[in-house]
Specification:
Blueprint (H helix, E strand, L loop, with lengths): L3 E2 L5 E2 L2 E8 L5 E3 L2 H13 L10 E6 L5 E4 L1 H12 L6 H12 L1 E5 L5 E3 L2 H7 L4 E8 L1 E5 L1 H10 L4 H8 L1
Antiparallel strand pairs: 1-2, 3-9, 4-8, 5-6, 5-7, 6-10, 9-10
Length: 166
C-alpha cells in the first residue's frame, strides 16, 4: 500500500481499492475492513492509548456529489491551513464558512460504521448502495450509478489528465 509521511513525520494511511457496501436504514455506512485496519493500526503505531484514541472520520460534502472521508491527522493538516485564513478578509472568511458548512465529524461505532446524516446521503444521492474508493489519504464515497456515469462520461480523458498531472 502506498502512503505518505505527514508533517508530524508519521506514516499516513494509504487507502487504495474500491468496495461496494450498503447503507442501512439508520444511514450507517460500514467502512471497509481493510481501510479500518489501516486507520486503526496507524493509531496503534502512534502510541495512542486504545481507550483514548480518536476513532472518528471527518466527512466533507464535495462539489462533485461525493463524500470525502478524512482521518483526524490528515484533516488536522488541512485545518492548519484554514487557521491561517483571515476572518477580516471577506473571501477567506467565505471559504472557511463554506468548508465548515459542508463538514461533519463522525465516530466509528464498534462495528466500524459511521452514521451519515440525511443531508449527507441526499448530497451524494445514496439511498442504499455506496461505493467506497480508497484515494490514498482519504476515502471517497459515491452513489454507484453516479460514479459509473462520471467514469463513462470522462473515459477518454484519462490519458490526457494522467499525462498532464502525473
Amino acid at each position: 500500500m502506498w502512503g505518505k509521511v505527514g508533517k508530524s513525520g508519521r506514516f499516513m494511511p494509504g487507502f487504495i481499492g474500491r468496495e461496494q457496501h450498503t447503507v442501512d436504514d439508520k444511514g450507517r455506512l460500514l467502512i471497509p475492513a481493510r481501510f479500518r485496519r489501516k486507520f486503526l493500526r496507524q493509531k496503534d503505531e502512534a502510541g495512542a492509548d486504545k481507550a483514548k484514541r480518536e476513532e472518528v472520520l471527518y466527512v466533507f460534502r464535495a462539489d462533485d456529489g461525493s463524500l470525502e472521508l478524512y482521518e483526524p491527522e490528515v484533516w488536522s493538516e488541512k485545518e492548519q491551513q484554514l487557521l491561517k485564513l483571515s476572518d477580516f478578509n471577506p473571501e477567506e472568511r467565505l471559504l472557511t464558512t463554506m468548508i465548515y458548512a459542508r463538514l461533519d465529524q463522525l465516530e466509528l461505532d464498534r462495528s466500524g460504521r459511521i452514521a451519515l446524516s440525511r443531508e449527507m446521503l441526499d448530497h451524494a444521492g445514496i439511498e442504499r448502495d455506496a461505493v467506497v474508493i480508497g484515494a490514498n489519504v482519504k476515502m471517497i464515497v459515491w452513489n454507484p450509478l453516479r460514479l459509473s456515469g462520471l467514469l463513462e462520461e470522462h473515459a477518454g480523458s484519462f490519458a490526457r489528465l494522467a499525462n498532464r498531472y502525473v
